[in-house]
Amino acid sequence: MARTCCPLYTIKCDVVRFKPSKSQKKVIRKFVNYILNDKRPGTGMSDTMGEEEMGDQVVVGERGEVDKGMQVEKELGLTNLEGLERLNEIEKDIEENTAIAPTLDENCDKSEEDAKPVMEKAKHLAARPVGPPKGMDPTKPRQGKAKLARREKWEKKVKEGKVDPKMKEKQEKTVEELLELTNTPNPAHTFTKRLVKADEADPDFISSFSESLLVYQKYQLSVHGDKEDKCTDKQFRRFLCSSPLQAEGGLGSFHMQYLVDGRIVAVGVIDILPRCVSSVYLYYDPAFHFLSLGTMTSLMEICLVRELATTTHPSITSYYLGFYIHNCVKMRYKGRYSPSFLCCPETYTWHPLVSCVPFLDLAPYSRLDRDMASMDRERPGNIMGVGVLYCRQATTYQMYKELVEEEGEERDSDRGEVEEYSMLVGDRLAKRMLLYRPA
């Protein structure tokens, strides 16, 4: 890690203490509003008339911003542009109907009699003196931000004993409460989730494979710009379907499929492990990019971890988001799921992200554990017990060395490789696994 330009730090979120941020709540409300009312973000219009979203920013109002939204959809290969085109026509009609009084020039068709009142009014306004701005009225109290005023009002009530300070925490809704969709009798769309084993012998996996593959191909072609020959059936199976994990007891590799009106719109590939759920990959239908499905599916996977922790797997309390790269702007979103922790690359201990950021701002690679006396608990002491696979037989490194010496060979380079291997996997796993050695 110290030698690479972009060190990768394993990151996890403690879902038991997770609280959605303001921006994440906004994404949830946008999603719920679309499912219940068929309203796209930033507008009261239905799906065929709404503005588009760019990341977390909603495109509204300005003509140039709307054009930018249309351009993004065209680049993504989307055809559902009727809404924005209709919006253009509506705004043009409004501009024409609400035009200011016509300008008096040589091309004006109005008579001089009709134009006189307008000219006189213009002269009157031009001659009218404009005084300097008076600014804020000193006799009135200074007006601050509404959010600050609410906070001061709340703190005042707490000091006076009129409210319980813990009441505010109780009032905050969880992700599960914000995602409640069952209270509305006739939603505009139906939303369902389906957890499918990443197993080609599983009936649900087989029945949904073709549709899931099509969503994957759309995503790779539109979002990542891949070529068609890179998004084949074979490549998809090798990349996201073939897993070394054995599915037993509710653990293993799964595809979490998200469906709107019975149609797969996104698939989250996850590994459910004894102590965590690990997010592997996400792909979605580009036609639904306005729903911020990256953030939305991560929040739903956090809900899955909580559900497992309170039901069948109480030991699963963490949500792993893969690797965090501090000097890569596109990867910093992983730190928004708070509280997040990074793994120290030297002691393999967990540390709050907020305490790690100052060190990572100074240098891409940093020892996150500030206790210099601390060491890796799994640091190997003696590599002679490391498991080795040699000539199709399981043995130890010590036995392997003896066999090689008997054959009259010297393999000094082996020792360095075995030491590095045992350092990476830890002493306990190095003795349980087998390191392949060529004959």
What is this structure, in a nutshell?
The protein is an alpha+beta fold and 439 residues long. The protein has helices at residues 22-37, 63-75, 82-97, 112-127, 146-159, 167-171, 175-178, 203-222, 233-241, 293-310, 353-362, 397-406, 412-425, 427-432, and strands spanning 9-14, 53-54, 57-58, 191-197, 252-260, 263-272, 276-284, 318-324, 340-343, 350-352, 387-390, 393-396, 435-437.
Strand content: 15-25%
Mean pLDDT: 81
Number of helical segments with 4 or more residues: 14
- Strand numbers in spatial order across the main sheet: 4-5-6-7-8-1-9-10
Strand tally = 13
Biggest sheet character: 8 strands, mixed
Give the proportion of residues in helices: 25-40%
> What is the chain-wise order of helices and strands?
EHEEHHHHHHEHHEEEHEEEHEEHHHE
**End-to-end C-alpha gap:** 31 Å
Comma- or semicolon-separated keywords:
alpha+beta, eight-stranded mixed sheet, 39% helix
What does this 3D model show about the protein?
Helices cover 39% and strands 16% of the residues. Residues 47-66, 79-84 and 100-108 have low confidence and may be disordered. The protein is α+β, with helices and mostly antiparallel strands and 439 residues long. The chain has an eight-stranded mixed beta sheet with strand order 4-5-6-7-8-1-9-10, sandwiched between helices. Strands 12-11-13 form a three-stranded mixed beta sheet.
